[in-house]
Write a structure and sequence with these properties.
The complex is a heterodimer. Chain A is mainly beta. In chain A, 0% of the residues lie in helices and 54% in strands. Chain A has strands at residues 4-7, 10-13, 19-25, 31-38, 42-49, 56-57, 64-68, 74-78, 87-94, 99-101, 105-109. In chain A, strands 2, 4, 5, 6, 9, 10 and 11 form a seven-stranded mixed β-sheet that branches. In chain A, strands 1-3-8-7 form a four-stranded antiparallel β-sheet, with no helix packed on it. By secondary structure, chain B is mainly beta. Chain B is 0% helix and 51% strand. Chain B starts with a strand and ends with a strand. Classes of the chains: A mainly beta, B mainly beta. At the A-B interface, strand 4, strand 5, strand 9 and strand 10 of A face strand 5, strand 6 and strand 10 of B.
């Protein structure tokens, strides 16, 4: 099925561990995004990539890095996880007419 | 500062009643406007969008929204709510000339049987 695929769906990390969240879309969209969702705070933009080869910081980029590997894939890396990064992470892609979201990654940092 | 406001954190309605969820934005020019719905444990699904033209837009699942430029609002409505509409609803804007969507903090809808 066409859409945005995120892996993994669930992850538990210890403080200081690193991990990469994967995202791939098959809709040939140029723009891709990473958001985090926390209770009472809505969705906050971490990083986005307007097109292949470009990335830009969003509202809450500290503690994260991203790679736009190709047009399909946009990964989010936590180099040294902290409890404050416990959240649900959503990847999305867009061609200007609204987002298509992935189903999310629930990350817990203990 | 640019912002999107959803003033109601929680709304409870009875099944069959009408619904209106409020959204206000503050931007210099009219942005692109969106409403999304998120069921528990799921990602967000696009309900409807407004770019230009007719200020009343129809979406999926029987929802509609009206853009009012004078009030900087884009309220979501449904004439008769179904129990399956219980979810969280997010208003979002895409300012002209940017790639960064801005989301409101969401309104959680509870439907009473």
């Amino acid at each position: 099925n066409a859409g945005v695929t995120q892996t993994p769906k669930f992850q538990v990390l210890k403080t200081g561990q690193s991990m990469t969240l994967q995202c791939a879309q098959d809709m040939n969209h140029n723009s891709m995004y990473w958001y985090r969702q926390d209770p009472g705070m809505g969705l906050r933009l971490i990083y986005y990539s307007a097109s292949e080869g470009t990335t830009d910081k969003g509202e809450v980029p500290n503690g994260y890095n991203v790679s736009r590997l190709n047009k399909r894939e946009f990964s989010l890396r936590l180099e040294s996880a902290a409890p404050s990064q416990t959240s649900v992470y959503f990847c999305a892609s867009s061609e200007g007419a609204g987002y298509t979201f992935g189903s999310g990654t629930r990350l817990t940092v203990v | 500062a640019q912002s999107v406001t959803q003033p109601d954190i929680h709304i409870t309605v009875s099944e069959g009643a009408s619904l209106e969820l409020r959204c206000n934005y503050s931007y210099g020019a009219t942005p692109y406007l969106f409403w999304y719905v998120q069921s528990p444990g799921q990602g967000l699904q696009l309900l409807l969008k407004y770019f230009s033209g007719d200020t009343l837009v129809q979406g999926i699942k029987g929802f509609e929204a009206e853009f009012k430029r004078s009030q900087s609002s884009f309220n979501l409505r449904k004439p008769s709510v179904h129990w399956s509409d219980a979810a969280e609803y997010f208003c979002a804007v895409l300012p002209s000339g940017t790639y960064k969507y801005i989301f409101g903090t969401g309104t959680r809808l509870k439907v009473l049987a």
